[in-house]
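Lab meeting notes turned into a lecture example. A postdoc, R.K., suggested we walk through two folding results consecutively so the class can see how the record format repeats. The first protein's sequence and structure tokens come next.
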Amino acid sequence: MAWALFVLLVAGAVASIALDYGDSDTAAPQESARTESSPTPTDRTPDASEGPAVTAAVDDGPASFTIAATGDLLIHESVANAARTSDGWDFTSMFNRVAPILSQADLAVCHVESPMSPNNARLSYFPAFLVPRELADAISYAGYDTCSLASNHATDAGREGIVGTVGALDRVQVAHAGMALSPEARDQVTLIEAGDATVAHLSYTYGFNNGELDADESHLSNVIDEAAILDEARRARSAGADFVMLSLHWGTNYSSEPDEMQVGLGPRLLASPDIDLILGHHAHMVQPVVQIGGEFLVYGLGNFLSNQSPETCTECPLPTEDGVIVHLTVTEDEATGGWSVTEVAHTPTWVDRANFEIVDVLRDTSRDPGLLQDSAQRTASALALLGTAVEPR
């Protein structure tokens, strides 16, 4: 797992927040290396007086690291009720089947679409979310290293939800992008170490359900603005990022096809020399992966944890139950020093709403195999919708 490097110029910005994070209802539960091959081979046995024999170093090839990316964590009331304990909430069991997969990656990336409460004193669910802060403990347990936070629900609870979400993830030492408690914090780039590389994580949303933020609160969460995104990406490079990863909350609900805004904006942003990968979410359905100029754009990662299903939502088609872990290998070009995605694969997932456990569809043996096969096929078809096949892992 990677360790977050927050480039914070004003360290006191978060510490000054008066809301308390400490009185929890429950207790808080790599690096790729290479050596240059340099010794000159010899066919004679060295004399003892010449000292110890020299062993040739092994060239492991170019440096690389791996990413595992997932979609929306949308904590509906039924999900929270399933996590209820005698003294709080515990969401960790919902990730039991996928935590080993996520933990294997050098950099595991989540999307938090439900703002967390700073103290669990006031909770709310759809249509305006403020969910138990123990979600952060499950995020850490699952093996996530960084989470995107900008979404249409980011400001559902106003500043309270921003304070709670940022504080909860800071408490469990998971990096994050897309929310900030001050203009100064907003201007800092989220940097994470992954293997030999420094990765920047950016996060933006198309807008908010409760309207635009006032000018004096515009730092709370990032709204998609092409110029602002490109500026932050440039600053990320200047701050030392080898690889810049952009999370975008965009698209049309309940559609497996990217919409006009996505197919216009995505390739333009990816054409920037300062953006290396785009990870999308919001549609609540898996959307295609495309390769453009040697770089990858994941239009939509679907739901990873939610209560969405045709049985609970008249608007929700069956694929809202499906999710995916997209696996990417990022490799250094030894000639240029640049980093790019060289391999892409996927693990299809499905939410069992009996207990809200996230199921590894290809390896689960305890559920209806026909149901899981159908889910896997839907996910594979959605990923390949625009012609780029992404093989199962």
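The second example is placed directly after the first for contrast:
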Amino acid sequence: MGKLLIINGSPRAPKSNSKKYGDILRKYWGEGIDVYSVISQKHEEVCKELGKYGDIVFVFPLYVDSLPAVLTNFMKQLEKIAARKENDLLKNLKVHILINCGFLEPEQNDTAIEIFQYFCAKNHLNYGMTLKIASGEAILTTPFAFLVKRKIKRFVKDIRAGKSRTLDISMPLTKKVFLGASTKYWLRYGEKFHTTEKQMRTMKIEDE
């Protein structure tokens, strides 16, 4: 098995939850890992080195039921590599995704996953494991953080075993409890940036 490459597909890469999940993944994987954040815009350089990896894990947040635009820019470069039939860089590579969303239900990630899987099929990329994390914005700060860590540990074991299946994790809460807790969370988050509840509820995003 070759090295592992973690692709952080978040626009907020250095301060993102995707980085936190990637760090947990690194802990359980051990040695032989490289990390690339798509916001660094070195796509061509990274793609030229893909031959030294056995697995890639794309770690990213759900954006409007889809993929972050900064991630799709990297995927376009990857598509160019895949289109070169004489190129063996991707021959032995297996692709996996770890996606998180702010919703209670992990299946909210499904549309984005289908888009990614279609991309892999179209470009003849070997697709492996999927991990869907719900309540991804907050779960690591709750008593349920151990559930995520345990699931990521299983995710790593399955990648090493060459498996191809879907895992998911969410907080064991009712929708009513989740709504109340998430509202408090976002109000506290808004206070950090001096944003009121009224401002957060408006559709207006900047002054005219």
